[in-house]
Each structure stands twice: as structure tokens, then as C-alpha cells.
Specification:
Blueprint: H1 2-5, H2 7-23, H3 35-48, E1 55-56, E2 59-60, H4 66-79, H5 84-109, H6 114-123, H7 126-132, H8 138-153, H9 161-175, H10 181-195, H11 199-203, H12 206-229, H13 238-251, H14 262-270, H15 275-287, H16 294-312, H17 325-343, H18 346-375, H19 380-393, E3 402-406, H20 412-415, E4 424-426, H21 438-449, E5 458-465, E6 479-483, H22 488-492, E7 498-505
Parallel strand pairs: 3-4, 3-5
Antiparallel strand pairs: 1-2, 5-7, 6-7
Helix pairs in contact: 2-5, 2-6, 2-18, 3-4, 4-5, 5-6, 5-7, 5-8, 5-17, 6-17, 8-9, 8-10, 9-10, 9-12, 10-16, 15-17, 16-17
Amino acid sequence: MKFWRSDRGALALLLGTCALMLLLGLGSRELWGAETRWANIALQMLQSGDYFDPYLKGGPYYDKPLPSYWLITGTAWLIGGLNHWSLRLSSVIAAWFSVWLVYLIGEQLFRKGTGLIAGWMLATTFYFIFWARVATADILTVCGVLAAVWWYWRGPDDTRFSRYLGFFLLLSLTSLFKGLIGFILPGLVLLPHVVQDGRWKRHLNLRMCAALVIAGAFYMTPFMLSHIYGAPTYGESGLGLVLRENVVRFFQPFDNIGPIYTYLIYLPVYTLPWAPCWLLGLWLALRNWRSVEPNTRWLVWGLGLLMLFFTASGSRRSYYVLPLVPFAQLLGAWWITRRMAERNATGRFSRGLKIGFGLATALLVLVLGVVYPWTNGGGGVIAFAETVKLEASKRAPLDKWKMVMVEVDNKVPMYLQTGGAPFYYVQESQDFPRNGNTEALLAWLDRTSGQHFDPQRTLVIAQFRNGDALPLNYLSADHQIITTTPTNGERMFHGREDQSVAYIPGIQ
């Protein structure tokens, strides 16, 4: 009992509860949104053995730096295959560490208990936990930014080479997950403290420059490996991606264009249910600016600079605001602990916070761990793939089949892994036979691919919209047809618009 009342016990309870919210039901939801691209690219890496040239549905697609995909393929290798767990586990672990890092930063910079409250606030923030259970690089970026800020605050005046090297390596690693914001965001957050009292002059030395050069070489390594070992005919450049995604998109956005007030709306939304706390903390800090603690002024400045940076970018999406969420919750936790100290009402506030965190935890566990898995059950792509594999295995072992994907939904390939030959992708723009018979399609495949497709061991998957005629319907003359069925959620709310159909040789 004494352990749970200690600081270590309180931290263990926080991290254990956070792990429960992150892991419960993680493997029960279908691929969603951008996850389909990550799964498709990682699957093609695993099938082809080419880890330096990312492909999406058979075409070059260098959308993110290679380490983003290597995390997934490495996890798939460790746990024995690409699935929901290997796809999402890196985001889950990053979110778990983010909660811990927020705790450490809060306890180090503010009064006792601030870090614990901030950790609970972040762990029970709906959109943070939601995106932590999605396979994207955004939560990896949040974790990297927090790690760099934590590293800096362990010794802000320390000028040893090892301190600089650790800091810049963290920035390089974070930038290798999503882009150069891994360098920019920590720099913006820490800038107010670095320039204060001329601190930057102390850090402008040869040791820092040497560490920066080494970290720069570390950052360039995956791009160099891709250039040296990648296919000469690949046609896309990783460094070209960096320029396009981080510079061109900032000044001349070509997609994801939102209004200038986007983040004024989404930062409060993405910090629910605790948004009122940081808004009140911001108001209190600005009202008493000269008398508040220097670290609080730094936090407000850092949060403001992040908001200014994201607003200045022409490319805006709601979840881009995620890196601001931990710092907003830190500000909210500062306001709570200050109010508790001023009113000398620690016991009453403590009980209220425990009730609030308990209710938020229960709600998240219910929604993410119970409701989401149920809505994804009873049909959908997962059930479709299991049925296809079951029927195909009645004719031959799964590793003997060749899969042909005709403009298929990105999420389908991951569920249809057979251990056989890499999938062959056919794009809608190609001149494959829309009408005819099985022999014509297989002859076209042989001619186009340079491979041989056995009529009895070729499984064709295609996509269609609900209500439309089945694509390649001429295959139904000598193939068994399997289509997707709606999930529990789709039966309750609406039907599935995009559906998949499988053609298995031999009618049963």
C-alpha cells in the first residue's frame, strides 16, 4: 500500500493505465486512413526484400523517410508477420514514452505534482490516445520533440560534447520519421530559453558544431543507402521528398489547405476534455506575466511559437496540431497545481482530479477497447480476407498462389498475405481487358509482367463501389466469387462504399 502512495507508485499507476488504454483492442480495428499506405508499403518491402525503395500498389511512393517504414518491417520481423500489432506498435510505444516524458518535464520544471497531473491529462486526452493507436509518424514526432526538450532541460547550461551530440542525434532521429520538423519544432520550443540572458553565446562553440556535423551525417545515412543500394530505375528521390514536403509545401502548399484559423479551433478540440485548464492557465500567465515563474513564461512562449509556425504554413490539417498538445497539457497542469497551492485545498482538488481521470480513463477504455472492436467485427475486409484464404487453401496451399491486385483498396493486401510470390498490382490506367474471358486476362498478365500466371493458381482481387457492377465480371464463368460484407458498425450506421471482390479459380 505504501508503494502506491509513493511517487514511484503514482508513476507506475499512470504508465500502467496508459498502457491499458493504448493496447486494449489494438488489433481489432480495420486499417484506417493513412494506415493503408503504411501497410501497403511495408508489405511490399517484406515481400520483395527491397527496403530502400518504397512502393505503393506497385508504383514508386517515397512519401516518408525510410526509417518510418523500417520500424514497421522490423517489428513485423520480431513478432512474426505484418499485422495490426506490428503496424501500430511503434506509435503505441512512442505515445507511452511521451506520457512519461511529459511527467519528467513537468516534475523537473514546475512544482511537485505538476508532471503527474500533466501525464494523466495527456494519457486521458481522447485525440492523443486515438492517434497513438494509428500507424502514422505523427506520434513518433511528438515523442521525439518531447525527448529533445527533456534532454535539453537536464542541463541547459551544459556545454559538453556528449550533451550536444545526444541532443542533435535526437533531432536527427525525429526528422527521419516524418520530416525536418524534427529539427524545427524542438528549436522553436527551446528558442525563448536559449536566447534568454545571452545563453546562445555560451553554446556557440566548436563542440556544438562537431556534434551537429555528426548528427547531420546520421540523418543523411538512410538517404545515402537508398541512393547506393536502391534500384537505379526507381525514379524518386528521398531528398527531393524532404524539399517538397518541408519547404515547398510550407510556402506553396499543394494539398491539405485549411483556413488560417484552423489550429485556433483544433488545439482546444485536440486537448479535450482538459482544454479549459490550459486556456485558464494561459489567461492567468498572461495576466500575471511579470510575476509568474520563468519556466512558465518559457512554456507560454514555446507554445506560442509552435502555434505561429503551424499557422504560418499554408498546408494545414487538424492532426498537425498534435505536437502542441503535450505542452498545452503541461500549461493546464501548471494552472491546476498553482490553484491548489493558492487555495490550500489539495485534498479536495486531488479527489476531484482522481474522479475526473478515472471517468476519462473508463470512457477511453470503453470506446477504444470495446466499442471500436465491436463495430469492426462481423464482416468487412478482415472477414473477407479470412474467407478468401480459407477457400483458396481448399484448392492448394496458400504459398502456391499468385495474387493479382486490380486497383484494389490499399488495406486489402495486408490481410491477404500468403507467404507466396509478391503481389502483382494492376492500375486502373493500364489497358487490361475490361471484357473478354479468363484466358485473355491471363495472357495480358503474362505479356505485361514477364511472368507466368497459372490459371489454377492465380487469385484476382478487384475493388468496386457499392451498387456498381462487379469489375472483371467475366471471370465469374469459371471462378468462385467472394465479396466483402458489412461490419457491425456499417450495418448499424451506413453501408460500405468501397468493396472488394475475389475471383478464385474453380466454381464451388
